[in-house]
Structure formats: structure tokens, C-alpha cells
Design goal:
single chain, alpha/beta, TIM Barrel, two-stranded parallel ribbon, 3 helices, 24% strand
């Protein structure tokens, strides 16, 4: 089984207990980060063309600090380079203060079927 983890390091605020790599969202080049992650996925797919990802996890930071359009662009990239079988686990970490109906709609449309909610 092949699993993939994608790290989104941006946060609306920095939690004192978190030891993960993270940066305060304001002023960060988020669009460029998303573009570079998609380029990295293309490189990995080229290097490992026969790998099938059975589990995909997007963590952070706080992935839901991405706007709905940034989230959509990222998920399109994932579906392009690492399409998953129906029913494969596809998780996104979320925080209640950074989630919205539009973001849930985008995640559902592109196959996310599990939310890991921090409270």
C-alpha cells in the first residue's frame, strides 16, 4: 500500500502545543506554495509512474487556511497526478474557525471523504 502525506504549513494563529512545521498565514506566498506542491507532485509521478496512492492525507499547519479556490487548485493537482480508486481514504485536517461551506463543497467534489477536525 502506498500512502501520501502533503503538508500545508500555514496557520491563522500559532498554537503553543504544536510541534509541527508551521508559519503564520499573513503575508505568506500561499499561491506560489500551492503551485510548487503541484510541480513536486508532477515530478514524483514522473519518477514513480506505476505507484497507486491508496491513502492521501493533507495535514499541517492548518490546510483549511487555504481559500476555497486554492484548495480546489490543490485538489485538482492531486487528482491529476495521484488519482485514487473510489473509496480510498482521502483526509484533510481542519480547524472549526477556518472551515466554510464552500471549502467543504470543494473537498467533497474532489473526493475528500474524511475530515480530521482539531478543536
Amino acid at each position: 500500500m502506498t500512502a501520501a502525506y502533503l503538508h500545508i504549513p500555514f496557520c491563522d494563529h500559532i498554537c503553543f502545543y504544536c510541534d509541527f512545521n508551521k508559519v503564520f498565514l499573513e503575508g505568506q506566498p500561499v499561491d506560489e506554495y500551492v503551485d510548487m506542491v503541484i510541480q513536486e507532485m508532477a515530478i514524483m509521478k514522473e519518477r514513480h509512474p506505476n505507484e497507486k496512492v491508496e491513502t492521501f492525507y493533507i495535514g499541517g499547519g492548518t490546510p483549511t487556511t487555504l481559500t476555497a479556490s486554492q484548495m480546489e487548485k490543490l485538489l485538482i493537482g492531486i487528482q491529476t497526478y495521484f488519482p485514487m480508486e473510489k473509496g480510498a481514504e482521502f483526509t484533510v485536517e481542519a480547524n472549526p474557525e477556518s472551515i466554510s461551506f464552500d471549502k467543504f463543497k470543494v473537498m467533497k467534489e474532489y473526493g475528500v471523504n474524511r475530515i480530521s477536525m482539531g478543536v
